[in-house]
Design a protein that fits this description.
heterodimer; A: alpha+beta; 5-stranded antiparallel β-sheet; about 35% helix; B: 4 helices
């Protein structure tokens, strides 16, 4: 499997930069060949991960360094060509999109990285839940004084996306949403 | 982010334009809580049709608005959710907790 750098961004912990990163992620995921819901999903995961770094690793202090590296994973040539013939979604050898986020905040205790229970109606604790819901792989690591967050999203075959979309549409037909 | 308020009888409609994220969700929270807790408006409606994106801190602000509305006996209504805003409420299992309508006409008639 190949690993090719698509984008590297260095930013400072400043919430006004989040919309800039989202803009870049939206365009990049579209170019890579993800469906519209997947583009939103990956963009949301990155946005929430950087938000978590700003809030929790850097305690809302401005000007702290954050690095974002995005790699293409896969052995194949063009993402759109492969999308049509793609098989084995979510398998380790599928085409995918790897996102590495690095911050230099204090070490994070992985056992404390839990989202809140969703049956509670209260503000907060949703960011990590959104990341886990959005991505196929979510890994935390501490190395050389930095926190590393590794996220992977694999391309799904088009027919499985259609099936998921139909499932979402049916779920949306409840009377509360009409 | 821009937030403007319209008042129609006993209803306040907040027209929100822009993304709601860490940079500006406190602004949304402040506007909602003032209208619900201090002004005690019987019905507060959020027009989200010009909001492309809501992050977890934005959802938290909306949840605070919902809880405040329950505390004071007001109604808190959302309409015009973008696909992204709808997804984020679905992911947090809040879509059916909020009173959600497609457009302003339905929101005011509901």
């Amino acid at each position: 499997m190949s690993r090719e750098l698509l984008l590297k961004l260095e930013l400072r912990s400043d919430p006004s930069m989040l919309c800039v990163v989202r803009g870049a992620m939206e365009r990049l995921t579209e170019t890579f060949g993800f469906s519209a819901p997947e583009c939103r999903s990956v963009t949301r995961a990155v946005d929430e991960a950087i938000t978590n770094i700003m809030r929790h690793a850097y305690k809302n202090q401005p000007g702290k360094p954050i690095e974002l590296h995005i790699h293409r994973l896969g052995r194949r040539l063009g993402p759109r060509t492969e999308r049509r013939s793609g098989r084995g979604a979510k398998a380790p050898n599928s085409d995918g999109f790897e996102i590495l986020l690095t911050d230099r905040g204090p070490a994070v205790d992985p056992s404390k990285l839990r989202g809140r229970r969703l049956d509670e109606i209260k503000p907060g604790g949703l960011g990590l839940h959104f990341i886990r819901q959005s991505m196929d792989v979510v890994e935390f690591k501490r190395a050389r004084g930095s926190n590393l967050l590794r996220l992977i999203k694999y391309l799904q075959p088009a027919n499985s996306l259609d099936r998921d979309k139909r499932r979402e549409d049916l779920a949306d037909l409840g009377p509360a949403n009409r | 982010l821009q937030i403007s308020a319209r008042r129609i009888d006993k209803t306040t409609i907040f027209d929100v334009t822009g993304d709601i994220d860490l940079a500006n969700s406190p602004e949304v929270r402040k506007a909602l809580l003032k209208e619900l807790r201090e002004t005690r408006t019987p019905r507060v409606v959020m027009n989200l049709s010009k909001v492309r994106y809501i992050d977890s801190s934005g959802v938290a602000s909306l949840v605070e608005g919902l809880k405040a509305s329950r505390d004071v006996g007001s109604r808190f209504i959302l309409f015009g959710l973008s696909p992204s805003a709808r997804e984020v409420l679905q992911l947090s299992r809040l879509l059916k907790i909020f009173e959600v309508y497609d457009n302003e006409e339905q929101a005011l008639a509901g």
